[in-house]
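User: tokens in, sequence out, please.
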């Protein structure tokens, strides 16, 4: 269980990005967070991902406080952020550099299979389409077997057809792994298509304006 308690974030320049954000996310739940530009969505994900510290409040997973990158929590950003000099295989395996070699190979292969790229391991990032590169970024997160996957507008740079395909992939991944997901998006249609629950944020400072239950979690 992921628990966010009264998170606030005021940046050094005085901008109040978050003004008290409280949310419990159940295991296996997909929560979409929507809201206009600048309402604190990326700030929220960076705090949950342990990439930045809140001004006050806490994030915890299974009762353990998160204040730096946590092995059970992984992020996918809007851009794939692949290392251009490494192959797809090595990008995906990067976080497992210290794992046993057989274990690493098995997990990289499984992660690439999950995003339907099992024959793309030898390619370099520049040899991929935008949708393929983003699938590699998803595989790179999945290979770490996160309990919580944070997705920061992961599909917004892609064309509508690719986006629809990746929605399908993401739901398949969810059924296979049962991962908890927090999806930040400004696309209401995407939020409704994927999430169990949609959180609507209001800006200055970012907080929860409304919460809409879309579907039961048993599906
Ligand atoms: P969103 O993801 O919803 O667009 P952000 O979390 O990126 O919102 O930003 C929330 C607010 O915080 C905005 O006003 C933004 O300009 C500001 N902000 C974001 N990052 C920083 C930063 N590193 N330093 C100062 N202000 C920031
Ligand atoms: P998509 O399958 O996402 O629609 P594209 O239409 O962009 O991808 O690409 C079609 C095919 O061309 C894909 O198999 C892709 O791997 C390949 N491809 C795309 N860009 C490049 C590139 N820069 N170098 C090599 N192959 C590429």
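Assistant: Sequence out:
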């Amino acid at each position: 269980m992921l628990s966010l308690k009264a998170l606030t974030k005021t940046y050094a320049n005085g901008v109040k990005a978050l003004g008290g954000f409280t949310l419990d996310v159940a295991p296996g739940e997909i929560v979409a967070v929507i809201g206009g530009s600048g309402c604190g969505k990326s700030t929220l994900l960076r705090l949950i991902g342990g990439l930045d510290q809140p001004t006050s409040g806490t994030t915890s997973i299974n009762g353990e406080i998160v204040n730096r990158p946590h092995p059970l929590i992984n992020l996918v950003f809007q851009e794939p952020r692949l290392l251009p000099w490494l192959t797809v295989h090595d990008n995906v395996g990067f976080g497992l550099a210290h794992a046993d070699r057989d274990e690493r190979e098995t997990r990289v292969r499984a992660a690439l299979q999950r995003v339907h790229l099992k024959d793309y391991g030898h390619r370099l990032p520049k040899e991929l389409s935008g949708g393929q590169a983003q699938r590699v970024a998803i595989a790179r997160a999945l290979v770490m077997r996160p309990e919580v996957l944070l997705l920061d507008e992961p599909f917004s740079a892609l064309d509508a057809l690719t986006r629809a395909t990746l929605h399908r992939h993401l739901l398949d991944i969810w059924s296979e792994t049962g991962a908890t997901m927090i999806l930040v998006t400004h696309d209401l249609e995407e939020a409704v298509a994927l999430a169990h629950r949609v959180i609507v944020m209001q800006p200055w400072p970012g907080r929860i304006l409304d919460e809409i239950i879309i579907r039961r979690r048993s599906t």
